[in-house]
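Batch job 17 of 40 flagged for manual review because the log was empty.
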Amino acid sequence: MKLIFCLLISFACCTMGCTNAQNVQPIKKEGIFSPVAVIELFTSQGCSSCPPADALLTQTIATAKEKGQNIYALSFHVDYWNRLGWTDPFSEHAYSQRQADYVSSLKLNGAYTPQMVVNGKAEFVGSDESALNRNLQMALNGKAKVGFKTLEATNEKGSISLKYSLDGDFSNTTINAALVSLKEVTSVKRGENGGRTLVNENVVRNFITQNAQTSGVITLDAAAIKDKNNFSIIVFIQNKNTLEITGASTAAITF
């Protein structure tokens, strides 16, 4: 009996040791994937209405970390404010186009900042804390359709190689990988926020979209990485037609 008990304990410890909860979320349990909430904030350093939304995103990231919630936040800096006096150093036209895709999908009158989108399904003014909390609660009470069996990121000569494998229903979806800067502090010289020091978190620095498959490799440009302790990767699965986000995870970068 003692021998059997020791073998059981040994097997349990080995099983626990092989699980990397930090890098692979959500896990599959009894055929159900843990619910996730992906927040996309469309913002600009040239917009005077955006700092409160940026602060709300920062607050939400901290709360999610404290509570251990599967909330993944992304700050996409659009470029259409750049013509008004300040060029946002984190802005990309591709991020403005991503917002335009939501405008079309959600049948909106037009793009605006700050705007938040949760799980590709609900949008609202980015500084509206009540709307954010309401939509996060709905997302976290739902079910994810896709889970990550493996997710590993390694830095290889200026590029990040992200290897993944999926489980669940990922038909007609894309896999989106975002290299995010955890925190950026900018002294704005001109424009509507001229003279202010702005803090942005989870700023998207490189964003790649590919067709989702059972397993694959995504290559991200690591040129933006200056401080290896200030970056992470957020990956999520999205329906091609509805833009609904059906699974998400995060991966640390191994240097």
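Reviewer: the log was empty due to a logging misconfiguration, but the result itself is present. The helical segments are 2-17, 50-67, 93-105, 129-140. Unflagging and moving on to job 18.
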